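agent> call fold_tool(seq_1)
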Amino acid sequence: MKVLGIYGSPRKGGNTDQLLDKALEGARSAGAEIRTVYVRDLKMCGCIECGGCDKTGKCVVEDDMQTVYPLLEEADVIFLASPIFFYSVTAQVKALIDRAQADWAKNQLDRSSEEKMLKRGRGYLISAGATRGKNLFEGAQMVARYFFDALNMSYEGGIFFRSIEKRTAVRDNPDTLREAFNLGIKAVAS
């Protein structure tokens, strides 16, 4: 089983990085092959809505996203990790998600309507936010749901932590790290 971890925080080593590290550790312990993408290190732009992918299913923009497309296509499970910025994912993650338009176009071109109904994998969101707002994760979950749908994957939920801001907040709370590790095991075992 191939598992892809997408690190979406602009802050290296922050809370969502630590949570994703643990989830991937859990997945690896269950026998998964692990790949990673650090969105903060990619040199890429957002979708330019040129329509280039509509006929071919391939993005025409030549940048680092071209190295990400094969990883998205090969993954059986994807963990998307992002802190909450204004009740959604980070701008870096959103740019990657918008570029998944090419994957959506490819799926529309490649599959019959019957095949479109079958999901090829599962996606999970790992997120932490500084506030306690009741709707803190709703925007990010909606974005994640449609990202995974564009990849023809089912959205399986994830783990979400409120009142997490200090860089050491997750490390200081072993229960959060244990929950992330267990999510990794569960995702591979499902």
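agent> call fold_tool(seq_2)
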Amino acid sequence: MKGFYHSMLTNYDLLFGINTSNRGRYQNKHQQYFPYEGTPYLHLQQLFAAFPLSPTDHLIDIGSGKGRLLFYAHYHFKCRVTGVEINEQLQRIAQQNKHQYFKKHPGENSIISLVHQRAELYDIPPTGNVFYLFNPFSLEIFESLMTRISQSADKDPRDISLILYYPKEEYREFLQKQTNFQLLEKVDIPGISAINPQECFKIYRRLRY
């Protein structure tokens, strides 16, 4: 957990040597996919203080954009991370960020994977056990993705954690009524979640059988 207790004012983009700002417009050819927005670093600190990862985890960010979550998780926990992104422009920026990140923090760069693919077509690897989503697409695509995740867990039994940031009600209803995922924990953002209850993380768990 290298540097996990940095000051809340840490400029992580500067620390990592990357650029993951929300500035810029990135055209998406697929209407069911939503615009890029990186999860605020302060919120990531809150999430992972409550839900730390281990080096044996494989975190997969669906709709990974410029890769902010990937570099943050790898830096602190040294776990394998994969970003799945449909937008070519964002994918190129993420690749540049990966190159710059390893210039500042040398290591085995295969532990950070960047996949240019539609979420509903992505082949879930048997090592993937933590999935992160920040409302990247429609309910239809979410349902397809969850089916693929569940099928992967059936084929290669393992516990699966699903982290939803700013979770949609329709996502939550689907998980509750049509999947084996159970709500494990809700992580609020101090001073923010009380004003906007949707501004939180919800962590779901599907146990191996």
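agent> summarizing second result for user.
Residues 32-206 form a domain with the Rossmann fold fold (CATH 3.40.50.150). The chain has one domain: 32-206.
agent> awaiting next instruction.
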